[in-house]
Amino acid sequence: QKLANAWNGIGDLYYQRKECKEERDEAIAAYERYFLLVGREEDFSTLGTLGELYFMNEMFDLSIETFQKSLQLRKDKDEGGCGIILLSIGQCYERKADGMQDDDTSKMLYERALQSYEEAHGIFKSIKHIQLAVDSNFHSGHICLKLRNVDDALKFFALISQTIVEVHGENINEMESDDPLLERLNAALRLVFRGGISKKNSSEALVAIFEFYSSFFPRHVYSLTMKERIEFARILSLLGNHQLT
Asked: Does residue 242 contact residue 207 with C-beta atoms inside 8 Å?
């Protein structure tokens, strides 16, 4: 047990410098030696750390396998941690899909990612972790855009604006432009801008997002770049909404 703990401690030391690939490789080697000695049945926290390192090294299959083992051990013990692991599994599937040449395989992987993100959202919503619930909606919407399902993407993004209204209520105009929830909504809009919007896919969800911006706090539009503001105005025009100039 002392030898196992020593390898775990060595892994922790290298993990502190995880931004360097050589340090990550050393951390992975140390943690793998640790698990050879103790097995993978108890320490779900270190499994999560090892899964993160595999992900950073783009070893996605190993990362998914390790995260899933950590998730299995966390159930009924750490609900919030399960949500974070599900987010991580979704990111593994998404990154793996991004590198695929075969459209059918990438579609299958994106769908698995979406499932993980939605499961994570359910957990974060139940434990009222607002930021991570919004993050999971953002990731789900981004996946839908990659699957060319614009309407579903916009529905996920509209949920972000709905959450902001629910959280801030009458104080919504006092939000700072760097508020993490608003930054997520801005990031979602940038994805929409990048993909292009026309009357054909100007769904009710998109209308809801832009009415949210124009009705509640137009000053926050200025956290967008000039190019993005022009695109914002173009979409408002398409929607027949001229409240902002």
From this structure: no
* Spatial separation of the C-alpha atoms in residues 188 and 180, rounded to whole Å: 12
Which residue from 65, 96, 71 is spatially nearest to 83, judged by alpha carbons? Answer: 71
> For residue 115, what pLDDT is reported?
97
The CA dihedral of 92, 94, 99, 104, to the nearest 10 degrees, is 120
Average pLDDT, integer, range 175-181: 78
Reported as a single tens digit per residue, the pLDDT across 34-71 is 999 988 877 899 999 999 999 999 999 999 999 999 99
Tokens of 76: 């009924």
Q: Are 184 and 160 in contact (CB under 8 A)?
A: yes
Residue ranges of alpha helices (H) inside the chain are 2-15, 21-38, 44-56, 60-74, 79-98, 103-126, 130-146, 150-168, 180-195, 204-216, 226-238
